[in-house]
Amino acid sequence: xxxxxxxxxxxxxxxxxxxxxxxxxxxxxxxxxxxxxxxxxxxxxxxxxxxxxxxxxxxxxxxxxxxxxxxxxxxxxxxxxxxxxxxxxxxxxxxxxxxxxxxxxxxxxxxxxxxxxxxxxxxxxxxxxxxxxxxxxxxxxxxxxxxxxxxxxxxxxxxxxxxxxxxxxxxxxxxxxxxxxxxxxxxxxxxxxxxxxxxxxxxxxxxxxxxxxxxxxxxxxxxxxxxxxxxxxxxxxxxxxxxxxxxxxxxxxxxxxxxxxxxxxxxxxxxxxxxxxxxxxxxxxxxxxxxxxxxxxxxxxxxxxxxxxxxxxxxxxxxxxxxxxxxxxxxxxxxxxxxxxxxxxxxxxxxxxxxxxxxxxxxxxxxxxxxxxxxxxxxxxxxxxxxxxxxxxxxxxxxxxxxxxxxxxxxxxxxxxxxxxxxxxxxxxxxxxxxxxxxxxxxxxxxxxxxxxxxxxxxxxxxxxxxxxxxxxxxxxxxxxxxxxxxxxxx
Length: 491
Ligand code: FAD
Ligand code: SF4
Ligand code: SF4
What we know:
Bound molecules: flavin-adenine dinucleotide, iron/sulfur cluster
Helix content: 25-40%
Strand content: 15-25%
CATH class of the largest domain: Alpha Beta
CATH architecture of the largest domain: 3-Layer(bba) Sandwich
CATH topology of the largest domain: FAD/NAD(P)-binding domain
C-alpha cells in the first residue's frame, strides 16, 4: 500500500546524502555531498507526514508541490515525481543543491519540531538528476510558434527562467548577456563545491536546444542600446542582477592585495572552467600559499573562505562584526567552513589595513553588541582599547552588492529606480516605467537568492505574455504593432 511508505519520521531518522570528509573536500572543488542512493532517497522521502497544510510548500518561494513529489519518490514513481517537481521549477536540480533550505522549505517542515525535517532539497536534486540520467528532461517544444519576440537582458536564473516560460508559449526568445557564458552568478559567482558548473552548462545547452537564442558578450548600454533593443523586440525583460560591490573606508584600504569578493570568486570559477585567467596566474586573485583574511559574514564571505582553503591558503580567517547567531550567512555554510579549518573572528571589525607595498595585516577592533535599533538588530559598538592585528598577504572584501546605475548605463532617463538603485516595477504588471519593459530578479529585489530569481522570472513571463497578447490583439489583422505603436507586417 502506498500509505505504508509514508509517515516514517518516528522510526526513520533524518539522513542527508553522505558528506565527504573535510580533509578530502579541502583538496578539490567537487561538490561536498554525494548522491542519494535510490533506496536512501525513497526512505527519506517516506518520512514525510503528508501534511494537510504543508508549511514546506508555503515557505518555498516557488510553492513547489513537495508532499506530492515526496510521496511519488517513496513509491519509486520517479518519472512522475520529476513531472510534478519540474512543473513549478525551471531548475530543480540547482535549487535542490543551493537553496538555504534551513530558512525555507526544510526550516518550516512540521516534523522539524522533535524529529528533524524531511531532507527536501536533496530529494529534489535526486529526482532531477535521475530524470537527466534517464533522458526524461527534454528541451522545450512549443505547441505553436508565435511571431512576436522578446529580448531578455541577463542570462542569470531570473532571465533564463523567464526565457524558458516564454519559449514554452511559442515566443521568439533572445537572451543577451555581457559574459561569454549564460548562468549569471550561478556560473561565475557561486563556487563549484556548492554547484558544479557542468550542471549549469547542461541547463544552458538545453535552453538553446529548445530554440532560445543566446547572445553572448553583448552588453546592453555599450554594445547595444536599450532603445535599439526595444525597437527590435515586442517586449523586454531586464534581469541584470546586482554587481556593484559595497565598500568601506579605512586607512590602507587601497593597498595591493586587498580584493573584491566577486573578482576573486569569478577568477576561481573561470580557472575551474579551463579559461585563461592572467590575474589568477600572476597571483593577484589566487590564495595559494597566502594568509587570507575575509571581511564579511554573508554567504559570499563563506564562499570566499572555502575557496581560499581549496586553493591551498596557508591560513584563512573570517572577520565579522556581529556574533554567530546574528550573521546573515547560512549556519550550514559556517559549519562547513569551520570543518574545513576556517578561523572565525566573531564580534570584530577592521580598523585599518597595514603594509607598505601590499597588505601585510588587518588591524581589528573588538565589538560589543548594544541595544537593538529600529530594525530590531543589536547595533555593533567598538570596545575601546581592544585592537588586535591579523597578519595576512591577501584581504578579501565581501560586504554585499548594490545595483549599478542602470538609467545611466542604459541611457534611459525614463527608467525609474528606487533610492537604492533597484528598478521600480508595478507589482501587478511587473512592468517598469517604460512601456513594454519588464524587470525581475536581484535588480528588482536587491541581492537575494536563485530561487527568488526563478520565481520572479516565471511571474514576469506570465505578465509579459498578457501584455503581448493584448498588443497582438490591438494590431490590425496579419500585422503586429512594434514598440513605437506602428503596425508592422507579420510576414
Ligand atoms: P544574476 O544571476 O546576477 O544574473 C544577471 C546576468 O545579467 C549576469 O549574467 C550578467 O552578466 C548579466 N548582465 C548584467 N548587466 C548586463 C548588461 N548591461 N547587458 C547584458 N547582460 C548583463 N543564491 C542562492 O540561492 N544560494 C546560494 O548558495 C547563493 N550563493 C551565492 C554566492 C555568491 C558569491 C553570490 C554573489 C550570490 C549567491 N547567491 C546565492 C545569490 C544568487 O546567485 C542571486 O540571487 C541570483 O543569481 C540572482 O539572479 P538574477 O538572474 O537576478 O541575476
Ligand atoms: Fe526547498 Fe528551494 Fe526546492 Fe523550494 S526550490 S523546495 S525552497 S530546495
Ligand atoms: Fe512533509 Fe514536512 Fe512538508 Fe509536512 S511540512 S508535507 S512533513 S515535508
